[in-house]
User: What shape does this take?
Amino acid sequence: MDTSISIKNLNVSYDEKIVLSDINIEIEAGKIYGIVGPNGAGKSTLFKSILGLLDSHSGEILIENKKIDNIRKKLAYVPQRDDVNWDFPATVLDVVMMGRYPHKKLLESMNSHDIAIANQALEDVQITSFKNRQIGELSGGQQQRVFIARALCQEAQILFLDEPFVGVDIKTEERIIQILKRLAQEGKTILVIHHDLSKVKEYFDRILLLDKHLIAFGDVNTTFTKENVDKTYGGKLPFFE
Assistant: This one.
């Protein structure tokens, strides 16, 4: 197995409250991972811990056998839409071009190569016609595709997507998952926080069921079971009935 992310004995606390406890997982490259669990389960906290955005944790996280600071430019994060300031005066192309910053030296200008990569990313997610629009003028689905385009422009090896399908129509959702599956086939690692359990087996190769601690982790066909879902959600979901 080509391990992309190794997490050992991860514990995270806020204000003396345990948010994540004793997380041990090995993430394989070239797969799409779904992370599911109830509200407050620690899903976004897991992402922020891996990305080095939280200091209040213990344990070891290695990405391609390196610490986060040595590999950060290979990671791309697509946040929840609620976490973005859509009034920011930037065009779609401006936002997508931000993906090139990790590849540039301080004050180094963008060149024709960077612009070509950005335009290709826009084309890949089918939003080229919107590239001169202010980001806040777009629909929810278009905004999500902009941030995926930014990740593509960054040429990241590992993508973290936090609820990417919230507020998008089914056609856009299907387009996004097609892009993610293509990226996984190219050897990239995709992690997706997701809430629609009806799509889990269709969308993901591996599944991580989380409720402050690891309930289950493995191949979606053998791990996404009624027993594990009941353990994760306290038996409150009628999904398998």
